[in-house]
Design goal:
By secondary structure, this protein is mainly α. The protein has helices spanning 2-7, 11-21, 36-49, 63-83, 93-103, 107-124, 126-130, 134-155, 157-161, 168-172, 180-183, 199-205, 208-218, 222-232, 265-273; strands at 242-243, 246-247.
């Protein structure tokens, strides 16, 4: 799409284009505008880290991050154009979900559309992900599991929080600041791209609250979370990015030890208190396991 191509090498203009997609085809969409908060916050973090920098920049960005951001912008622009009268069928299932958000702006519909674009980009650009440095590939998995979990807070609170399910819709609402607790990746990922240290060095410096979230709350339900997300987003290939509860996106299953939860009473207690309830163990597609696991 020409609009995305025009901003591709100008990170700040990418943010401006994203902002425009929440203003609708005529520049005024008051019911949709509050949902830009989470999206803009995440993109500003990408901008600050330098992953969206053009290839010719003094500090080049990441081909993977740029491609994923392109997909999100392209789907959003197409949805706006369709809302303004563009004829024809959506170019992808993700755009169809954006159409649903445009028609009914709710937290669940926003997550479905946003995460469908993100997951589609993850799946389409596995080749680029494989070329990223090892620590970056670890963080790509962290980003994915965090955004999937934030969606589940709103749309599947029993899966996300167990007995604390009534809190899910408030904690996960993308229109309010609490969502930043789950998407505050600045406390997890290095400030600049590419990462220079080893994975274990970053894990040792991870914010304690984020570590408790990742290992005490999200990790025990990770397999179920990916399988639920695959159904919710209508993208069964998402199941290929997890194996036996371990993320495997551009990551070797043999190195799954990095996902092992820390020992201690608090992580175990948190896992018990928030144990998921009424979770289906069935994947949306028969035999939906990574090829290496078959």
């Amino acid at each position: 799409m020409a609009l995305v191509a025009g901003v591709r090498d100008f990170p700040a203009r990418r943010i401006a284009l994203l902002d425009r997609t929440y203003r609708g085809p005529w520049g005024r969409a008051p019911r949709h505008l509050p949902y830009r908060r989470a999206a803009l916050s995440f993109m500003r973090w990408q901008l600050g880290r330098g992953v969206l920098n053009p290839p010719a920049a003094r500090a080049p960005g990441s081909p993977w991050w740029r491609a994923v951001n392109d997909r999100l912008l392209r789907d959003g622009c197409e949805a706006v154009a369709r809302a303004g009268g563009l004829p024809g069928e959506p170019s992808s299932p993700a755009v169809r979900l954006w159409d649903g958000f445009v028609a009914a702006p709710t937290a669940r519909n926003w997550y479905r559309a946003h995460n469908a674009s993100i997951v589609a980009a993850y799946l389409a650009h596995r080749d680029l992900a494989a070329r990223e440095p090892l620590p970056e590939r670890f963080f790509l998995n962290v980003v994915l599991l965090r955004v999937l979990y934030a969606h589940a807070l709103v749309a599947a609170p029993r899966l996300a929080l167990g007995r604390f399910a009534p809190l899910g819709r408030v904690l996960g609402d993308p229109r309010v600041g609490m969502t930043g607790l789950y998407l505050s990746l600045g406390r997890v990922l290095p400030d600049r791209y590419p990462p220079r240290a080893e994975v274990r060095a970053y894990l040792a410096h991870e914010h304690r609250l984020g570590r408790l979230l990742d290992y005490g709350v999200i990790q025990p339900r990770l397999q179920a979370l990916y399988e639920w997300s695959a159904r919710e987003l209508r993208q069964p290939e998402l199941c290929e990015l997890v194996r036996d509860g371990n993320p495997v996106y551009a990551w070797d299953y043999a190195d799954r030890h990095v996902w092992a939860p820390p020992t201690g009473l608090l992580p175990r207690a948190l896992a018990w208190l928030t144990a998921p309830r009424q979770v289906s163990a069935r994947c949306p597609r028969a035999g939906c396991r990574p090829p290496s696991a078959r």
